Amino acid sequence: MQRIGVFVCWCGSNIAGTVDVQAVAEALKTEPGVVFSTNYQYMCSQAGQDIMKQAIKEHNLTGVVVCSCSPRMHETTFRKTAAAAGLNPYMVEIANIREQCSWVHKDMPTGTEKAIILGKAAIAKVNLNTPLTPGESPVTKRALVIGGGIAGIQTALDIADAGFEVDIVEKKPTIGGKMAQIDKTFPTLDCAACILTPKMVDVAQNEKIRIFSYAEVTDVKGFVGNFTATIKKKARYVKEDVCTGCGICTEKCPQKKVPNEFNLGMDNRRAVYIPFAQAVPKVATIDPDHCTMLKTGKCGVCAKVCTAGAIDYTQKDEFIEENYGAIVVATGYNPISMDKFDEFAYNQSKDVITSLEYERLMNAAGPTAGKLLRPSDGKHPHTIVFVQCVGSRCSACDEKGKEYCSKICCMYTAKHAMLTRDKYPDTDVYVFYIDVRTPGKSFDEFYRRAVEDYGVHYIKGMVGKVMPEGDQLKVRASDLLANKQINIDADLVVLAAAIEPDKSARPLATMLTASMDTNDFFTEAHPKLRPVESPTAGVFLSGACQGPRDIPETVAQAGAAASKVIGLLAKDKLTCNPCVASSNEIMCNGCSSCANVCPYGAITYVEKEFRQPDRTTLVRRVASVNEAVCQGCGCCTVVCPSGAMDLKGFANNQIMSEVDAICK
Amino acid sequence: MENKNLREEIIRRSGVNPLKCMRCGKCSGTCPAYDEMEYHPHQFVYMVETGDIEPLMNSKSLYKCLTCFACVDRCPRGVEPAKLIESVRLSVIRQQGNNHLNTDTIPDIIDEEMPQQAIVTALRKYNK
Amino acid sequence: MKVSYFPGCTLRTKAKQLDKYARRAAEALGVELEEIENWQCCGGAFTTSTDEIATKLSSVRALNEAKVKGQPLLSVCSACHNVLKQTNDAMKNNADFAFKANNYCEFEENYAGETEVIHYLELLRDKIGFDKVKEAVKNPLTGKKVAAYYGCLLLRPGKVLQMDDVENPTIMEDFIRALGADPVVYPYRNECCGGYVVMDDKESAKKKSSKVLESARLAGAEIVLTACPLCKYNLEKSGMDMPVVYLTELLAEALGVKED
Amino acid sequence: MQIENKKPLIVAFCCNWCSYAGADLAGNNRLNYPAEVKIIRVPCSCRVNPMFILRAFQRGADGVILCGCHPGDCHYTSGNYYTRRRMALLFSMLDYLGIERDRTRVEWVSAAEGAKFAATMNDFVEKVTALGENKRLEDLRCKK
Question: I need a labelling partner for D3 at 20 to 30 A (CA). Which of A28, A333, A553, B77 fits?
């Protein structure tokens, strides 16, 4: 029989408000095995933990039940406390009477009654708990960063700085991501390229970092400390180690009409191209969809002009396997498609553009060499209308927009408006806003400067329709403060498009078994306390793949993710989860059912000698679980026909006893 | 109290939840009848929400809405202001003697080419 | 191909040409229009309020008749199409309304929105195919600059009507192209003409209609195309010098079946 | 015996990674659902042996609901696929035994779907309440 101690937490009034903690402690006192029962204001506090430690020692407790918040919150805390008092930490069970009781029920009698039942279930389980000892697994001291934008770059640099090897996998031909396309950064207006490209060069020169550009992760196996990733290096038809990046091929290629994705299709590139001057790695890539040689076998100009002999039309996609201890997801974001918002005439007029396109129009390396010219006729626009929240905060229907606030638009729109007024004082700039959201350091001051110093017209209201007429855009909108409908004849309309996670994130999440929210942003292990870790051990999150964020936040998170990775890689051994499957060899009949369903291949079969009652020996084939590989899902326990397979910590009899306790 | 009931009725009949409105004003930014209206689509949503319905019921704005559904389709929050306006209008015209269109005057309004569609629609919109 | 046909009251009186040419063109394209027996006026507008039942029953009856015949229900008039389609959607998705309407109508089997409601344009696009229409054209309207006027009833509410992209539709432009003419795209093509408000405020309707035609004129249109008798009326009354014709008339002309 | 006023007894099995977290989120957001629901935490929905469900009914549960990650999102890659197939078989067997189909349910609730968790529980309890007490599988010997 166990000697169990019960500790009921008030959590201030969080629990005590709807649960009579005194009554709960009293009611649980008489449960089988319980020798001690108490309640305290904050069990997780130092004083609360001391009460537990003392009780364990005084009453020789062999098991502990804490009736408190969710085990996802403080299970680890209380297990550590128990361990400090000399008790096996896996003899502690939590009854969740906060998230699943006091917070969701309103009246005291109901809450108290349910809390008592939950407590009884936990006690019934602890009665059958056995001390568990975690095993250990080795750590591969290398990290994989998926995505080479500013988030991935910063994470990789920080991890490499601590002395660990890092691989960056970037699906585009160059690292740099969205930040490379941005002209200036708010709120300080420093040039994005000036602060980003040195970091890109650092990455290229860092001997701890390898860049797999134009590559994708196609498969991930394993678990924390021991991942194996398959990386597909797409054929770029250029030998990366031979190409000098001189760019002669990109000048001579006769295929001139390929939309340049770096400038968002506002100008053209060749079929062989280097995305931009500061690309890393600075090597050419042949676009197989447009290359005449690859499509028809006739051309070969680039190979002829390449003095280094780097062109190779026979290159094939290459798959490589690499081992890692940790994986950082930094897949970033994209602006959403404007197809569903044609009241703003994005598809009807070239002069209705997105903010990212405006960014390229302002950039000295952009399609207009930094001159603000309209895409339609190359004229200078004198009236520009910015529309905020296009597709953000939109709950009308799922496929149209996004329900969340995209967070960065208010600030970049203020930046665009300010820069436009600064460079072209003859231009009238209107910004239609619903709310201006500027919670960041020096952000609101920045926005106010746009209004007060630069004379940007901020109008509270929304544009209802944009009508291209002649060479003008008739903008019909509401001015809510004046209670008027206004019409503006604009030359250019800029839409602050909502942002969404990159399309590659969803399949990647499946590969990593990392969870996502309904918007396909990766979820964090805890929204407040573990913001850069995925709930899947060994997978970390960096940048906008987790939610909309600006550059400073991204860099901060990238560093945080890196420090978590470093913390993991610094360990030689990892403590494994001891709640793993184990097979009772006497009962096992070697049928292979368990091995067939195991997603990790953790179950193997061994020939084992058994002494028979008649003293002869019999060799039988029995299942054996590799505890370092088993993740403890328990699927095997259900398929086992003889009941030999069980899961430690969630054993059949433990769950049954919980069921019984609840149904009593 | 009576006002509260009226508010509930208008909301229930329209099937619209005015609380979903985020006050962006896109409905009013897109409304083709805006200039003829004394209260504009976004005000209908707000005033129904706050229960300030009396002025709406007395306003000729009720009869200026074209039911063109531009506000319904373009609202980012799915609020559907036109349905709310219709609901307020029904609260008025369903009362005895509150028909907006005087049937005696119809012969004066219509001309040779006026399609039946105009008359039946107007009767449905303006009269009980 | 046989479809059920709901002409609507205006097509019987003021918009006879719309009806006549719709029938002739359909015949030329090998589609038989079977008129709904004893159809009643759709009411011209779909009342959005959830407690209006009786005013929608004529549509429910027409929809049910098409269902019994196992045919799609076709209409040409934008208003009829809009009312039928919205009523059908309510029968499908609003259980309360469907329950009450079925109680009134007492059909042999409850109607639950089974009928496919199509507009004449959808018949041409989805059932016949614009390429087939193009093949059947005898007098291509080459060089004619035609501006499609959608108005509101054909497109909105987009969630229910689902004819085309609400903000950037192409169905009428594709239709115009099939007839050999040049479509003119202009921003007011899906703005309201003033609709029934003409009964209350002629000036208001005139203002809106003239904006539409002005916009079409600026874009270079020679002629404006519509499917709605009320749109045609309002546009013509705006005082602008721009011919407005029904789409079926233009179709009949191109197919060579306009003259008797 | 007072049958009329007896509240139903619902056992909910929730996988640790998605649904249990979803239930926690429902708590964090203070989304109410009936106290009749008692949650048992399991590592994965595939850990739930059909025996557990039968045991619950035997001991007097009126409804059993099993919540897991959405298909494709299982923390253990494939666990919930097994759950789905296993429960389809179990439920059809229960159906055969005369246990109303509404007494059992499998629902996918992600860690982000607190609202869905609460809504599901409200709906499930309502349906089970409407069915009244479960007497078919209840083992009267288990009654005290």
Answer: A28
